[in-house]
Design brief:
Layout (H helix, E strand, L loop, with lengths): L2 H8 L11 H4 L6 E5 L9 H23 L4 E7 L3 H13 L5 E5 L2 E2 L4 H9 L14 E5 H11 L6 E8 L5 E6 L4 H7 L8 E5 L6 E4 L14 E6 L3 H7 L2 H11 L5 H5 L1 H4 L6 H8 L6 H4 L10 H6 L6 H14 L22 E2 H7 L11 E5 L4 E5 L9 E2 L6 E2 L4 E4 L9 E2 L4 E6 L2 E6 L5
Helix pairs in contact: 1-6, 3-4, 3-6, 12-15
The chain binds iron/sulfur cluster (SF4) (2 copies).
Length: 446
């Protein structure tokens, strides 16, 4: 069986948060195959853990994927401060006589952004609304690479490494079956001393947020990499939860048009025509300039403008999210720009040092917390979403009462469809089938 078919069978999707089906992404020919091991969001340790524990698998898989996509260069991008992980990878590369190289990046945000990374490595900016393929590159997260290695061994994606940190008693790494509840993951970190809390799924800049009472019925997906517990009145939580009406009213009264949001926006710095200060000016007017509003479609929602740049505490990111939704409703889509674009001169000087970002986020008390050794969790039930990826949901292949084995396919998409297969992550009996499949363990741990 060819490698793409194995990746398709195994249901591999982008593990860095996006969830793009990997068998579709890697069906290409490129000059550069880039592995994203940068993990630039604060407080996350998952990629570092994967490197230290799956280093050989990563190198072996990258060799095979490099051949698949015809890459002249296979490059692992990693932060230069991660010296232990760099040494580990170099030793494996040497032992396997591999030609894979490492590209070290500074400790700044958003070093892990695909567009930043591709530009730093290739010197080629990706066009507006474009993808790395437009400049001859394809990028995969290091977690996806481990899943591809497993696919090479005919093992589907059934588990995830996660960092559980923030306001928990014992911050820890965990290895969990896909479909475990968020509550079980937080309990594995000793729970929280807080009476009430919010949970960020993903990083504090771009992650989504749920409440403690939702944790029992919220289930880990293939692309989740961390859980951060924070008090409900924490700055990060309040910023993420601000209602759009309030944001727009504040914008109308308080935006001083200083344009710091634009000057610090890394997409603008990469040469894109994205000027959040102009969108902020427009949102306050009854008659919107459509051409300006369409610039919001180029926003990747990195959060620099609202967390770091704006001196007035406004939220250009959330305004962009709102504008994008409205434009999408009207059928307006981003248009691909020219390859011929100029990176702005200030680009090199406007990278945000991670430590300063963590300070702005009011997360210093959680920075540098010791992280416990990885625990393997074996829950009694899992609830597995049929759609945990970009594209169409998988079609269920099991019914209530069916007994399934770990790794058995329980949801399927066609080979050429945008979507990914899903598999049972524990052995047991199917007890519910909706847009999710719930499996109750039969007590066998495999
Ligand atoms: S940084 Fe804030 S105040 Fe300045 S233009 Fe942007 S939104 Fe307005
Ligand atoms: S969130 Fe703000 S800084 Fe980030 S890409 Fe969008 S406009 Fe630019």
């Amino acid at each position: 069986m060819d490698l793409l078919q194995k990746i398709y069978e195994a249901g591999v999707v982008g593990a860095g948060g996006a969830g793009f089906p990997t068998h579709i992404k890697l069906n290409c020919e490129v000059e550069y195959f880039i592995i994203n091991a940068v993990e630039c969001e604060p407080l996350m340790h998952t990629d570092k853990h994967i490197i230290m524990n799956k280093g050989k698998e990563i190198i072996l898989a990258v060799e095979e994927i490099g051949k698949l996509v015809g890459a002249n260069q296979c490059i692992i991008a990693i932060k230069e401060k991660n010296t232990k992980e760099i040494k580990h990878l170099k030793e494996i590369i040497e032992a396997l006589s591999s030609k894979i190289t490492l590209f070290t990046m500074g400790d700044y945000y958003p070093a892990g952004d695909e567009q930043m990374m591709v530009y730093e490595i290739t010197g080629k900016p990706i066009p507006e609304a474009g993808i790395p393929l437009d400049v001859g590159a394809v990028v995969s997260n290091v977690g996806s690479i481990v899943n591809i290695y497993d696919a090479m061994m005919d093992k589907p994606v059934v588990d995830r490494f996660l960092t559980v940190t923030g306001d928990v008693k014992n911050p820890t790494m965990i290895n969990v079956p896909v479909g475990i509840s968020v509550k079980a993951c937080i309990e594995a970190a000793g729970g929280s001393a807080l009476a009430e809390y919010a949970i960020i799924i993903g990083g504090p800049m771009m992650g989504t947020i749920i409440d403690d009472h939702e944790a029992e019925n919220h289930f880990i997906k293939k692309m989740d990499g961390s859980l951060i517990v924070l008090p409900k009145d924490h700055f990060v939580v309040e910023r993420k939860r601000k209602p759009i009406d309030k944001i727009i009213n504040e914008t109308k009264t308080a935006c001083i048009q200083c344009r710091y949001c634009t000057d610090m926006c890394h997409r603008y710095l990469l040469g894109h025509q994205l000027r959040p200060h102009k969108i902020m000016r427009n949102i306050g007017m009854s008659d919107h300039d459509e051409a300006i509003m369409k610039e919001a479609l180029l926003c990747c929602e990195c959060g620099i403008c609202e967390i770091y740049a704006c001196p007035m505490g406004l939220s250009p990111r959330l305004v962009n999210v709102h504008v994008k939704k409205e434009l999408y409703k009207k059928g307006v889509r981003p248009e691909k720009g020219s390859l011929d674009l100029e990176v702005r001169d200030m680009m090199a000087y406007r990278k945000i040092p991670s430590y300063r970002l963590i300070s702005r986020l009011d997360l210093l008390e959680y920075y540098g917390q010791p992280i416990d050794e990885c625990k393997n969790l074996t829950p009694e039930t899992v609830t597995i979403h049929l759609k945990q990826h970009i594209g169409k949901p998988a079609t269920e292949m099991v019914s209530v009462g069916d007994v399934v084995t770990k790794g058995q396919m329980i949801g399927k998409v066609g080979r050429d469809e945008l979507g990914a297969n899903v598999h049972a992550s524990i052995e047991g009996t199917v007890i519910e089938v909706t847009e999710k499949i719930t499996i109750k363990s039969n007590g066998v741990v495999s």
